Amino acid sequence: MLRRLLKSDTADSDRASAIEPCAKGPTTKELILDAAEELLQRRSYNAFSYQHIAVQLGIRNAAIHYHFPSKGDLGTALIRRYRERYQNYIRQIESGTTDPREMLQGFFKIYLEYLDAGDMVCPGGVLGAEFTSIPCSMQEETRLMLREIYEWLISVLLRGRDSGQLRFGGTPEGKALEIGCALQGALQIARCTDKDRFHLVLQQIEADLKPV
Amino acid sequence: MLRRLLKSDTADSDRASAIEPCAKGPTTKELILDAAEELLQRRSYNAFSYQHIAVQLGIRNAAIHYHFPSKGDLGTALIRRYRERYQNYIRQIESGTTDPREMLQGFFKIYLEYLDAGDMVCPGGVLGAEFTSIPCSMQEETRLMLREIYEWLISVLLRGRDSGQLRFGGTPEGKALEIGCALQGALQIARCTDKDRFHLVLQQIEADLKPV
DNA sequence: GTCTATAGATCGATAGAC
DNA sequence: GTCTATCGATCTATAGAC
């Protein structure tokens, strides 16, 4: 249902590369990460517990602690996996097109998927809002995640401006941050009111970037 | 230290309007709201407890429950008071200038104060991120708060565009949402990385609005 | 690798004295 | 209006059997 874009593929890479068909599904560890990730974006970090995950997966509290000794370990692993999938998604986009506008659409698509999943905000938004009350290791991973996200977005805007396909004043750094922050905030606002608010923001961003 | 802009004045209105000087400070109830508001923007709703407030004010847990029976009551009262102060601030701005650009600066100032206070995000950002895990009454107040904030911002942009002092494509509704969401997200990003990120976003917003 | 059982801490909330 | 004392729930985490 979720993670269609930022799809995990570590399950396959972990499996033996035997020739015979291996129909083994995702491991418990991955299922825990899946559940935790969705709970993070739906309820926030401080508002979900091991119990939520245990009930959802039909396992016991202690089973989760076996894979992730502390909740901070789980949260840190969650962001790290998110970062890896994000890099894969970027590579996929970069290998599929050279048009910065299409790349930007790929970026927007991530947020649109959160929106369509219903009541989900982006990881950066939750972790930013709860930043002072999450473990240090999670704070570190959050910083890395944000750095990587904006590094790529800046490069897309830079290429778009150079080719004349995107138009904006100020700096690519400023514009990338403005766009990312607006989308992050828009998911939060949309959750409080209605989905249309997000689309309004998205339309505004696109209108601002349109060459004359 | 805080709330210089959105300063509470209910303390004075509650006092008897006698002629003799009344040096009575803010009531305990107001001090509780002050502490809760700062904790909300610093730690988020789910990450602060009555204990935090009690220690900070040098009172006991039960004393807070006397003024606010449940934590949801406290949270709801907090947002309601915020809304009232916000309306006062808007009225103050409207009575001080007719220049939409100055009004916008007044709007930006709110966020700049949160930034300068250190590690604070805006109420809308926290409540949006934790929206699904806060009481219904708080959700309702949050919706009202957002409605009022953007209603005014839209009117400012509309007047600015009509007078030619502000320039932007799309609709005033879309632009207002984009600006508000960008500032909300920027406070969260700045908290994760560094304050300069917020100023970058602010500069970008201002550059986008500048008439040619 | 998952279970039962439980420790230890914190939290929201209430009763009743002063 | 604030206090002491405490209850019940929930949460993170661990020990040990299977």
Q: How would you sum up this structure, described in words?
A:
Two copies of one chain form a homodimer. With 212 residues, chain A is mainly α. Chain A is built from ten helices and no strands. In chain A, helix 8 crosses helix 9. Chains A and B meet through helix 7, helix 8, helix 9 and helix 10 of A and helix 7, helix 8, helix 9 and helix 10 of B. Chain A binds a DNA duplex (18 and 18 nucleotides) through helix 4.
Helical/strand content category of chain A: mainly alpha
Strand content of chain A: under 5%
Oligomer: homodimer
Number of strands of chain A: 0
Radius of gyration computed on alpha carbons of chain A: 19 Å
Largest interface: which pair? A-B, 53 and 53 residues
User: What level of helicity do the residues of chain A show?
Assistant: over 70%
Low-confidence stretches of chain A: 11-19
The number of distinct helices of chain A, counting runs of at least 4 residues, comes to 10
SSE order of chain A, one letter for each helix or strand = HHHHHHHHHH
Distance between the termini of chain A: 39 Å
- Let me know the average pLDDT of chain A: 93
Layout: helices, strands, pairs:
Two copies of one chain form a homodimer.
Chain A: H1 10-14, H2 28-43, H3 50-57, H4 61-67, H5 71-96, H6 100-117, H7 123-129, H8 136-163, H9 172-192, H10 196-209
Helix pairs in contact in A: 2-3, 2-5, 3-4, 5-8, 6-8, 6-9, 8-9, 9-10
The structure holds a DNA duplex (18 and 18 nucleotides).
